Amino acid sequence: MSKQPSPSHLAALDDLLEEAEQWHVNAGDEIIHAKRMGGKWRTIKWLSGSIWLLLFFGPYLRWNDRQAILWDIPNRQFHLFNITILPQDLWMLALLLLFLAIMLFAITAFSGRVWCGFLCFQTVWTDIYTWIEEKCEGTPQQRRKLDQAPMDLNKFGKKLGKHTLWMLIAIWTGISFVAWFTDVYLLWGDLFRLQLSSTAWITILLFTVCTYLLAAFMREQLCMWVCPYARIQGAMVDVTTIVPAYDFHRGEPRSRMKKGDADEHAGDCVDCNQCVAVCPTGVDIRRGQQEGCIMCALCIDACDLVMDKIGRPRGLIRYESLNGLEGKACLPVYKQPRIVITSLIMLAALLGIFYGLSSIDAIDLKVLHARQPLYVLQSDGSIQNKYTLKILNKLADDVTVKITATGPAGLKITSRQLLAVQHGTVTPTSVFVRVPRKELTVESQPIIFHIETVDSDKPFSSHRESVFIGPKR
Ligand code: SF4
Ligand code: SF4
After folding, report:
1. What are the φ and ψ backbone dihedral angles of 442, each rounded to 5 degrees?
2. Going by CA atoms, what residue is nearest to atom 4 of ligand 1?
3. Is residue 407 one of the residues assigned to a domain?
4. What secondary structure does DSSP assign to 201-217, as a single string?
5. How far, in Å, from the CA of 296 to the mean position of ligand 2?
6. 318 lines ligand 1 (CB under 6 A)
7. What is the pLDDT of residues 183-196, one digit of tens each?
8. pTM above 0.85, yes or no
9. Ligand index nearest the alpha carbon of residue 304
10. Domain total for the chain?
11. Are 280 and 297 in contact (CB under 8 A)?
12. Ligand 1 pocket, residue 440 CB under 6 Å
């Protein structure tokens, strides 16, 4: 392909270079005012951030007259839409944590710091804060000028507007965090009446202050200097990891071409600094992989836009492995041992979680057969067994359940069959079952206990098998 640029391309390049004069590389010692540009990765960043925002503000959703997401600590229950998870089911949480930890490892091994660039709460909140900053104070150049200008009414008004919006978001974040643990409408009511508990006040205050400081002032510097994940990622990535990378073979030597000045030997990088201008951590990706790069891929968007403007193919900065940049063949993903092993662990954890969720019943039944004595011979000639039934009610309300049983012919329950069961608790009850002796052909026969709600809008039921024991034959 010819490297001879057209006049319109050169004009676009002149504009870019003029703007580039105003940029310099940040070494982490100042607030970075990164330029915002549209593009595929910017859109993906917004979408992935929105998922977290939806999750974080999930407690505002209602589901069947109840908060959709609620950690009900006093009652030791976790509600997730229709599902109620009690301490007995917490093994699923352990599996979920295992799944997330392994997933983080696998994604990092495969594609670098995807978490940092697209999903981390710090990244998402900082993105919102810098978006507000741009709306209040203008482009990065205007913001830098404003920072250096002496305080006057105009500057004061803009700064006040920005910090007010930032603080409101921080307060909303603090309140919404507490809403994960209590009914959100009651929380807001108590807040306006100033009747919140001291724990709630302190948590809101802590979250508000942290959100404000971290998203407004620390920003991506937190990723660079504080977050330990940046330090340990070196152990997770290697030359096969696909990361945003600058194709130095194609880009070098750089050349700031002017009109009528076409260099046949120059690379495709026109040294416009747009990739640095958009970088939230001020990294120049052309210097290779650096600790400060959170792999948000925004420099890919910026460079693609430049390539479009000067009529050269996209992808000078692109997702690529170091091996790929050197033209070396990479093993397909399914042949890379660490990806295969981590995928298998994730699959096992996921299957366990699905099994757990699918087997969670709204009411659960456990049956214990009394051992002392195993059976009692009654005066009417029948054999009686005693059982302890433990009924767990995971519903939001108290219910009454009916206890029935099926098993040997002539089986009869002689204890009470209707039982009130409190929500969120295990209610034990003793059940006596009699069977005529002539019906017991073997020493031990299966018996199945059933429970069914009788006063709930939607009937729930559960059953559990046990044994009915008689004299030796
Ligand atoms: S890599 Fe792309 S965006 Fe960065 S300076 Fe070179 S041409 Fe400009
Ligand atoms: S170098 Fe590129 S991928 Fe890395 S943080 Fe900066 S903009 Fe994001």
Report:
1. -130, 165
2. 275
3. yes
4. HHHHHHHHHHHIIIIII
5. 5
6. no
7. 898 999 999 999 99
8. no
9. 1
10. 1
11. no
12. no
